[in-house]
Amino acid sequence: MKMSVKTLDGKSAGDVVLEPSIFEAEIRADIMHRMVLWQLAKRQSGTHKTQTRSEVNRTGKKPFKQKGTGSARVGSYTRTIDRGGQKAHGPVVRSHAHELPRRIRQLAMMSALSTKAKEGKLVVIDEAKAKDHKTKSMAKAFEKMGFDSALVISGSEIDANFARATSNLPKIDVLPVQGANVYDILQRDTLVLTVAAVNALTERLKG
Hints:
Number of strands: 6
CATH class of the largest domain: Alpha Beta
Radius of gyration: 27 Å
Largest sheet: 6 strands, mixed
């Protein structure tokens, strides 16, 4: 699969051959859904918590004597049925992360890349570099190329000027190639890859 390479000025910069097994793979919505759930589960902090009976800040003194009152015996007022007591079966600090096989994660990434390619929303540029850090000039360049909502995946390092120029642009995200993920790819309308990103993703997903 051959695709033309453009510069940020919209000019032609040659062609690049995309690996069919990666950019023309079978689109599996179910696999991408599993991947997105896996990513979101890993992002959850899991710090929500209620106090257990031993942590409730109330006296541990026995409220009244065991026998002779005609009432049920009570050991303390930290029980779940007491006002200010422990919450029954409350949340505890835990990790929401779960396992997902590496092969499934690879299939999900290939499905996401193939989805953008099939929809005509995959653009390849020669490099993601800017002459200065001005947001205005970068906004004009993206407007000229028709990018309203886009994820730009560069090489292993993001150009400092490019990062600063795009930081204030709404719906424009920039990631290094090692940070490429299914959730961010699907979240934006257009996927913009540099030639270095194409080569790195091909090497990562091939085989």
